[in-house]
Amino acid sequence: MTATPRTALTIAGSDSGGGAGIQADLRTFFANGVHGMVALTAVTVQNSLGVQGFSEIPVDVVTGQIKAVATDMGVDAAKTGMLATAEIINAVAKTLDEVHIGRSGTPFVVDPVAASMTGHALLREEALEAIRTELFPRATLITPNLDEVRLLTGVEVTGPGTQREAAEALLEFGSEWVLVKGGHLDAAQDCVDLLSDGESWVELSGPRFDTRNTHGGGDTMASAITSSLAKGADVPTAVTEGKRFIERCVAESYPLGAGVGPVSPFWRLSSP
Ligand code: PLP
Q1: Tens digit of pLDDT for each residue in 234-252?
Q2: Domains of the chain
Q3: Cα separation of 15 and 19, whole Å?
Q4: How far is the CA of 215 from the centre of ligand 1 (A)?
Q5: Span 187-227, pLDDT tens digits
Q6: Within a 13 Å sphere around the CA of 114, how many CA atoms are in the beta-carbon half?
Q7: pTM score, two decimals?
Q8: Which atom of ligand 1 approaches the CA of 214 most closely?
Q9: What is the C-alpha to C-alpha distance for residues 169 and 180, in angstroms, rounded to an integer?
Q10: Which residues contact 25 (CB under 8 A, 6 or more apart)?
């Protein structure tokens, strides 16, 4: 008999193009040796050119999925991606408390997905406030990109000073750690992310790759971090491992369709 692997749960939407959402999350969990499980929140209609629309899953089906896997199979770490509506966010928050995911229980990563990189909304407008008030206080780590930072705090990050200002503003919402990703900063510079719990400040620097094919990058990084947390890593270690993982995924991303191609978690499977 083979040993049971660690488990990770993604609470997120489906991408019909297979590059982002739960498809990216499951591939990433798998590539990192973790058994992936899903609570589907929404079905998007999309391809490499963008999101054409989405339909959300009934709230009791979303929370039912979380309870079903948590009470039977166990969850070693969880993450949220696209949550679509305030109603889903409020119900997910309540359910996470019931199954002891988040804050002092099972490690819980919140990727505050608001829009696709092609600029299409993945969250109904009133839901942003619910992410701030219901999810951030329960989160072990939140992982906004710079567009999400602006939407959530109003801070326009232009360099290290404003990146720290944004991190401080985000920590006010109550998460244990924040990772302000700098991937969308100056294209001529290395990609520097800032990780903090309000006491320690860690700058994680890595190369920037010359590719337009970065679809699913945010989901993949958050899932890689969640995989490491599921295997017992502390937050700074998990984020460092997640950053190294996403760098390779971006380096080996590929063109697909007429628009933006996906990052590739396959490298780990094909590398020795
Ligand atoms: N579709 C779904 C279901 C997602 O969860 C996300 C990102 O979280 C996207 C699309 C957008 O991905 P990207 O911004 O990398 O294009």
Answers
A1: 999 999 999 999 999 999 9
A2: 7-267 (3.40.1190.20)
A3: 7
A4: 7
A5: 667 889 999 999 999 999 999 899 999 999 999 999 999 99
A6: 19
A7: 0.96
A8: 15
A9: 11
A10: 10, 12, 36, 38, 79, 81, 219, 220, 222, 223
